[in-house]
């Protein structure tokens, strides 16, 4: 686990607080490369991304628009692509993927079991 210092706004002053979270080792390594290429820190990258997520989510809530919540649910794997398409009134997965990119949200990842099942299915097709 890594400790990350994150600015918190309180009484119009920025106060840094530390919290502990866990990251995939490979993800942290890749983040360090990006940070180095951009002459910044992983902490600054993390803060920028988290700030964007929070600001966008709060703006969506203030406006009463639930679309961001639906996209976030899909990104976190709490909704299937079929559910997201229906809820958002979209006709194609391409439109869903474009919205995910515009919202700066990552596509959900399949579980290891689902990925393994898909790979086994493809191997079976190739062997048959």
Describe the structure in your own words:
The protein has helices at 25-37, 42-63, 67-75, 81-88, 93-102, 112-127, and strands at 2-10, 13-21. It is flat, with a radius of gyration of 19 Å. A hairpin with a 2-residue loop joins strand 1 and strand 2 (13-21). By secondary structure, the protein is an alpha+beta fold. The chain has a domain at 66-127. The chain has a two-stranded antiparallel sheet. Helix 3 packs antiparallel against helix 4 (81-88).
Set down the secondary structure blueprint.
Blueprint: E1 2-10, E2 13-21, H1 25-37, H2 42-63, H3 67-75, H4 81-88, H5 93-102, H6 112-127
Antiparallel strand pairs: 1-2
Helix pairs in contact: 3-4
Number of helices: 6
Radius of gyration over all CA atoms, rounded: 19 Å
Distance between the termini: 45 Å
Largest sheet: 2 strands, antiparallel
Question: Which runs of at least 5 residues are low in confidence (pLDDT < 50)?
Answer: none
List the secondary-structure elements in sequence, H or E: EEHHHHHH
Beta-strand segment tally? 2
Q: How much of the sequence is in beta strands? A: 5-15%
The overall pLDDT, averaged over residues, is: 87
C-alpha geometry? flat
Pairing-aware structural class of the strands and helices?
Answer: alpha+beta
Strand order of the largest sheet: 1-2
- Estimate percent helicity: 55-70%
Supply database-style keywords.
about 130 residues, alpha+beta, two-stranded antiparallel sheet, 6 helices, flat
Question: How would you concisely characterize the structure shown here?
Answer:
61% of the residues lie in helices and 14% in strands. Strand 1 (2-10) and strand 2 form a beta hairpin. The protein has helices spanning 25-37, 42-63, 67-75, 81-88, 93-102, 112-127, and strands at residues 2-10, 13-21.
């Amino acid at each position: 686990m890594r400790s990350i210092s994150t600015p918190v706004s309180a009484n119009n002053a920025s106060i840094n607080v530390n919290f502990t979270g866990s990251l995939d080792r490979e993800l942290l390594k890749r983040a360090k490369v990006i940070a180095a290429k951009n002459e910044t820190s992983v902490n600054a990258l993390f803060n920028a991304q988290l700030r964007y997520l929070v600001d966008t989510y709060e703006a969506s809530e203030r406006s009463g628009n639930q679309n961001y919540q639906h996209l976030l649910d899909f990104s976190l794997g709490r909704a299937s692509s079929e559910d997201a398409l229906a809820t958002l009134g979209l006709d194609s997965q391409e439109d869903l993927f474009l919205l995910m990119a515009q919202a700066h949200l990552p596509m959900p990842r399949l579980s290891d079991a689902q990925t393994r099942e898909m790979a086994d299915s493809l191997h079976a097709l190739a062997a048959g």
